[in-house]
Amino acid sequence: MFKWETEGSRFVMERLLEAGHEAVYVGGAVRDIALGLTPKDIDIATAATPEEIEALFRRTIDVGKEHGTIIVLVGEEQLEVTTYRSESTYSDYRRPDKVTFVRSLHEDLKRRDFTMNAMAINHEGRWIDPFNGLFHIEKRTIQAVGQADERFEEDALRIIRAVRFVSTLGFTIESETQRAMKKHASLLSHLAVERIKQEFDKMFRGDYLVQALRILYETGLHHYLPETKEEITLESFEYVEQPIEGWVLWAQCHQLASTELARAYKLSKKEREAIARYLTLLQEQEWTPWIVYCYSLDELLFVRRVNARCETESELRQMKERLPIQSKRDLAFDGRDVKQYYPNCRGKNIGQLLEEIERAVVLQKVSNDTEEIIEWVNEHVYERLCIK
Ligand code: ATP
Ligand code: MG
After folding, report:
1. Which site in 120, 269, 343, 383 is 20 to 30 Å from 350, CA atoms measured?
2. Predicted model pTM
3. According to its UniProt record, which protein family does this protein belong to (predicted)?
4. 79 CA to middle of ligand 1, Å?
């Protein structure tokens, strides 16, 4: 067993080989091994057809048999096993019209996007690298397999993938490949926005995001992405550590409200709401204890860096720790108390009352003590909210 192999991957590999099918490790995992990283998920490619794969394993999931992909479950592991295939005639710049299963690994590697992703390792640890992927990894370059122009015409997502890999790997793009990206930028408008969104999420996780965005703009790709502006400043993207933060800055620099961004890039409701919170915080001038209470430390620290605020990280941590309560749950007064002490407070007023108490406690206008809260309510809000 190689040190990067898992029980599951070894098992699947051996089983396929024993049954007489050629099988190799492929794709991102092989690239990661070449980079000295531990691969995230290990993909296997095989000459066996999807039916032959299914017949060999007890637990399988058909995730796209027509494309040749079967997931094999081994213990807790999920392994993607894909039949060698070639792809032909991409009439819509998106998906191959026809997938042809082939028996040759070389054919399969040829249809892959970049040389670094078009290598395989067999069960004995032998590298199969017909397009010099290892050499390009050594040179830290991203190079299309074969004719870059053709490859981007076949599937324009590869253009965005190149940018995404710049962000995650810090590689540069080989000049012919980059020229072809620029030339075919307009093909991005044919892509399903969901696929772009997926690549953006990965791009926002990369350590070299600013470098990637610079290429995105230099090659003019932004013209063909939803709702973009001609020029943006890239510096603050340096602080992005997770996708949501990337989307926040993407919204900010293109002057989009969270709803507009979410519509344009088909973000989820959860993402849209998270972005809205960040955008509001970015506008807050004075960080009162109430603001510090309402936002998580992650949110505060990110916005602090983007806006180059004067609070230090440890000051913010302290401000947060010193708050009388950390969340509603810590409040010494809840819905049941409202019912008990203020039976005339009904409907919307209940929520309003609790919110005012919460605020008063956070701002230390009253201490977090049931008796004192009652006294404070009687004096300050009773007449407004607790009398019918
Ligand atoms: P990650 O580490 O982010 O998963 P990856 O290279 O494994 O990166 P995947 O999207 O998981 O990316 O794809 C697996 C492999 O399939 C790639 O390494 C590449 O060989 C091939 N591939 C994926 N998308 C394309 C595409 N659009 N065109 C050609 N080949 C592709
Ligand atoms: Mg992968």
Report:
1. 269
2. 0.92
3. Belongs to the tRNA nucleotidyltransferase/poly(A) polymerase family.
4. 15
φ/ψ region of 68 (left if φ > 0, alpha if ψ in -120 to 50, else beta) reads: left
Distance CA 205, CA 186 (A): 25
The DSSP H or E segment spanning 109 is helix 105-110
Under 8 Å between Cβ of 157 and 195: yes
| Residue of minimum CA distance from atom 24 in ligand 1 | 113
Structural domain boundaries enclosing 30: 1-139
User: Rounded to the nearest whole angstrom, what is the distance from the C-alpha of residue 112 to the centroid of ligand 1?
Assistant: 7
160-182 pLDDT, tens digit each: 999 999 999 999 999 999 999 99
**Distance between CA atoms of 174 and 192, rounded to whole angstroms?**
26
Query: How far apart are the C-alpha atoms of 143 and 67, rounded to whole Å?
Result: 25
The DSSP letter of residue 332 is S
If asked whether residues 291 and 360 sit together in one domain, one would say no
Q: How many domains does the chain have?
A: 3
pLDDT tens column, 287-338: 999 999 999 999 999 999 999 999 999 999 999 999 999 999 999 999 999 9
